[in-house]
Amino acid sequence: MTEVSAQQRFYITTPIYYVNARPHLGHAYSTIVCDAVARAKRAQGIETWFLTGTDEHGQKIERSAAQAGRSPAEFASAISGEFRALWQRLGLSCDDFIRTTEPRHVRGVQKLFRVLRDRGFIYKGSYTGQYCVSDELYVDAPPGSVCPDCGRPTETVSEENYFFKLSAFERRLLEYYEEHPEFIQPEARRNEVMAFVRGGLKDLSVSRTSFRWGIPVPDDEKHVIYVWMDALANYITALGYGSEDPADKARFERFWPADVHLIGKEISRFHCVYWPAFLMAAGLPLPRAVVANGWLLFDKSKMSKSVGNIVRAETVAEVLGVDALRYFLLREISFGQDGNFTFEALVQRYNGDLANGYGNLVSRVVAMVHRYFGGRLPEAGETGEAEAELRGTAERVTREFAAQFEAMDFARALETLWSLVAATDGYLTAAAPWKKPTKRTDEEQVRLQARVLRVAAEAIRVVTALAWPVIPESAAKVWAQLGLGDMKQAAQDGKLKSIAWGGMASGTAFAEPAPLFPRAEKDAMERMQNLENENNQSAVAAVSAGPTASAGQTAQATPAAEAVAAATAGQAAEVAPGAETAAAAVVEKAKITIEDFAKVELRVAQVLVAERVPKSDKLLRLEVDLGDEKRQILAGIAQYYEPEKLVGRKVVIVANLAPRKMRGLESNGMVVAASVGDEGAPVLAGFLEDVPVGARLK
Ligand code: ME8
Known about the structure:
Elements: E1 9-13, E2 17-18, H1 25-43, E3 47-55, H2 59-67, H3 72-89, E4 96-99, H4 103-118, E5 122-132, E6 137-139, E7 155-164, H5 170-179, E8 184-185, H6 187-198, E9 204-205, E10 207-208, E11 216-217, E12 220-225, H7 227-232, H8 234-237, H9 246-255, E13 260-264, H10 268-282, E14 290-293, E15 296-298, E16 301-302, H11 313-320, H12 322-332, E17 339-340, H13 343-373, H14 385-406, H15 410-431, H16 442-467, H17 472-481, H18 487-492, H19 523-544, H20 559-569, H21 594-598, E18 602-612, E19 620-625, E20 630-635, H22 643-646, E21 650-654, E22 660-662, E23 665-667, E24 670-671, E25 673-676, E26 681-684, E27 696-697
Parallel strand pairs: 1-3, 1-13, 2-3, 3-4, 8-14, 13-14, 15-17
Antiparallel strand pairs: 5-6, 5-7, 7-9, 10-12, 11-12, 15-16, 18-19, 18-21, 18-27, 19-20, 21-24, 22-23, 25-26
Helix pairs in contact: 2-3, 5-6, 6-10, 11-12, 11-19, 12-13, 13-15, 13-16, 14-15, 14-16, 15-16, 16-17, 19-20
C-alpha cells in the first residue's frame, strides 16, 4: 500500500461499531491496527489523534433492543460500554471514543444536514424500494430480492424521504479517484469502488420516517437522518464540527482532514462514495485515505455474530496476553487480505516468534549481563567482522521496517524485524559467551563476553524500539530491563524517533530479568477453547432464564450471565462502562407459534426445466412439478447451480407465496435453500430418502 502521510499531524479512525452485538476479534483487529499505527506515529514525534466509538442509531439497533425488551438507549449504552471496556482491557491508546447518541454528535450531524440542504444538495421526494436492515443499505432491486451484500431478505419501504443529490457527484468522484490513487487502498477496493461509481449513481435517500431511533432532521422532526449519514459524520463531529466552542473549533482545524479512515472492506462503498460526496457537498476537505482491512475468518467464513463463529479478544488476552494477540494479528495476516484465525496458528506464532524468539533472546542477554557484569552494561571494546555484520543488519532492518510499516505492510515489516532477532540469536550462539575454551585466558573471556553482550543488547534495543507499536506492554518491560527507563514516556516524548546504533551508555544498570512470554504449553489451546465455550454457555443460560428471571434466581450466575439476565429483566437501567456484560446475547429472534408456521406451505417439487434467465447472472427459470400442478419459479441460484444438473432433482418450495414478477417473468413460489457463509451461497434443501412429488413438509 502507498504511504499515507508524511506530515507532522496525524488523525486516524476506526469504524464506529454497531451496538447490536458484543465486540469480537474482528472489531478488535481493526482497532488494534489503528492503535499500532497511532503508536508508531506518536513515537516518531507526530501529534496524533486516534478516534474510535460506537454507532448506536438505526432500525437494526431499534429492533435488537426491542427483542431484548429494552429501550434502544439502554441497550445501546450497555453494549457501547462493552466496547469501551474491551478497548481499556486491551490497553488501546484511543484519544477519544464517540457515541452517536452523544449531544456533540447529534448537534454536528444536524449541522451537516442543514448545510447540505442549504447548499441545495438535499431535496424532498419519496422512496419506494428495498432496504436491507442488517446492512442499513438501500438496495436497487425488485421486491423479494435478497441484499446483494449480505444475502438476507430485503424489506420493501415506501416513505416520504429527503434525498441527497449523489448523482451530481459521479464525475467529480471519479476525477478525484484518478487524481488521488492513494485515496482508496488497497487497489482491489479502489477498482471495486470505481466500477461501482462508473455504473452510475442514483440520488440517495437520507432520511427515514417509519421508525424513531435516530437523529431528527432539523425543522422536520418526523424524519430521522439515515443512519449512515449519521454514522459517517462521527469522524468530524468527534473533532468538534458543529460546536461553537473555540477549543472544539481548534481541534477540528488541527486534525481534519483525517489521514486514514481504517475500515473493513465491506463498508468501502459508504466510505469511498457517500462520505466524500457528503464532504464535497458541504465544502469540506476529503480524508487522505480510506484503507480497508480484509476479513478475519474463523472456520473458513467471516467471523461475525450472525454466523455465530466469533472468538473474543478477551480469551486470547487472558491465556497468552494482549501483546500475543496484537503480534499475531499484525504478523500472520497479510494486511488488506482475508486471513484465517486459528488457535493452532496463534500458539505456534506465539511460541516460535515470541517465547522462543524475542523473549528467549532478551532473557538470555539480560541474565548474562547480571551473571558476568553484576547487571551493568559493559563497554564493547574492540569489535570485529561479526559485530559489523550485525550492525549492518540492524541498520538495514531499521530502514526496511520503517518503510514497510508506513506502507501498512505489517506482516512483512514484522518478518523483517524478526530477521534481526534471528541474526542476533545467531551472533550470540556463534560467539557462545557462556563457554570458555581452555586456550582462552580469563581476560580474553571477559573481553569477549563484554563485546558480545554489549552488541547483542544494542540489537535488542533496536528490535524493542521498533516493536513498541505492536507489542507495547512487552517492549516496555524489556526497555526497563535494559535500564532505559519508562518506554511509554519515551514514546510519547518522541524519543524513539531515531534509533541509531550505539545509543546505549556503558555502565547502565539493568533491571532484574522478568518473564516476558512464558512458553505456551499444549493446554493453552484447550484453555482458550474452554473459555469460549463457557462464555457462550453462560450467555445462553442467562437468556433462557427469560424476561421474568428475578435477581434472586440469577444470584449464582457468572457476572456475564447476571448482566444478561438483568438486561433481559429490564432491571439494569445502565450498565456502566467497564462492567463485564453479555447483553448482546439477549438478541434473540422473536418466536412464532405453530399456527404461524402452518401458514407456510412447504412442498416437494421436481424440476422439469431449468434455464438461465437472459441478461441476469443470478436468476434461473425453473418449471417444477408438484404432482397436482406444474408451475414456474425464478430462483436466484444461477451463480451456484448449473441448470442442466437440476433437471430431475427434487427440491423444496414455498408453494403459497404470492406471485411476483422478476425480469418480466412471473415467479410462483420460492425454492428453499440454506444460506451458507457470508456471501449467503445457496445450498438447495433435499432428502436422503425418496419422497413423492407434492408431499407437504410439516
Ligand atoms: O459496519 N474481520 O459496524 P460493525 C475483520 N457501524 N474486520 C471485522 C470483522 C472481521 N471478521 N468483523 C468486524 C459497521 N470487523 C458500521 C460502521 S463507520 C462510520 C460505521 C470490523 O459493527 C471491520 O472494521 O458491523 C468492519 O468494517 C467493522 O468491524 C464493522 O463493524
